[in-house]
Amino acid sequence: MNSLAVRIVRIVGLVAPTMGMLFLLAAPLRAQDAPALFKSKCAACHGPDGSGNVPMGKTLGVTDLKADAVQKQTDAQLTDSITNGKGAKMPAYKGKLTDDQIKGLVGFIRDLAKK
Ligand code: HEC
């Protein structure tokens, strides 16, 4: 093998594992997106804890996301409320958030109730 080939083999040998590690690291990071996303997109109306106990939440009369009325709904129903909106005041996030992000938020709403 000439020295260029050796160098290429070394670089590939170094880069490939690094990419693999980044890929593995990215998966849990994506799952952690949901709390940050909720805080930036939803907390103004729903409160950081989902209770709706914030001025905007009280004005709009949002339901506590931790309450049975919300928790007993299926994931599909919650996904629909976030994707297509609900009533006159809950905005639709279709096209603004990806399906994965919305799925993460549904999981986050479930987690809220466990606390
Ligand atoms: C502009 C204020 C506002 C923002 C921002 C907002 N919501 Fe809402 N949301 C509401 C209101 C008001 C309702 C109640 C709608 C109704 O029942 O008529 C609601 C209802 C919901 C429901 C259904 C609850 C139920 O009673 O069935 C879910 C789930 C929900 N919101 C999730 C979210 C998520 C997740 C976000 C962020 C991506 C978000 N909301 C952002 C105002 C908001």
Describe the structure.
The protein has helices at 3-31, 33-41, 43-46, 55-60, 68-71, 75-84, 99-114. Helix 2 (33-41) packs across helix 7 and helix 6 (75-84) crosses helix 7 (99-114). With 115 residues, it is an all-alpha fold. The chain folds into two domains: 1-31; 32-114, Orthogonal Bundle (Cytochrome Bc1 Complex, Chain D, domain 2), CATH 1.10.760.10. It is built from seven helices and no strands. Bound molecules: heme C. Residues 41-42, 44-46, 60, 62-63, 69-70, 73, 78, 81-82, 86-87, 89-91, 93, 105, 109 line the site of heme C.
Sequence-ordered SSE layout with sheet pairings:
Elements: H1 3-31, H2 33-41, H3 43-46, H4 55-60, H5 68-71, H6 75-84, H7 99-114
Helix pairs in contact: 2-7, 6-7
The structure holds heme C.
Average pLDDT number:
90
Class derived from helix and strand content: mainly alpha
What is the CATH topology classification name of the largest domain?
A: Cytochrome Bc1 Complex, Chain D, domain 2
Total of domains:
2
User: Which ranges are low-confidence, i.e. pLDDT below 50, for 5 or more consecutive residues?
Assistant: none
Bound molecules: heme C
Counted beta strands: 0
Please identify, by name, the CATH architecture of the largest domain: Orthogonal Bundle
The CATH homologous superfamily of the largest domain is termed Cytochrome c-like domain
The DSSP helix count reads 7
Indicate the overall shape: elongated
H/E series? HHHHHHH
CATH class of the largest domain: Mainly Alpha
Strand content: under 5%
- Distance, first to last CA: 61 Å
Q: What Rg, in angstroms, do the CA atoms define?
A: 21 Å
Largest β sheet strand count, sense and barrel closure: none
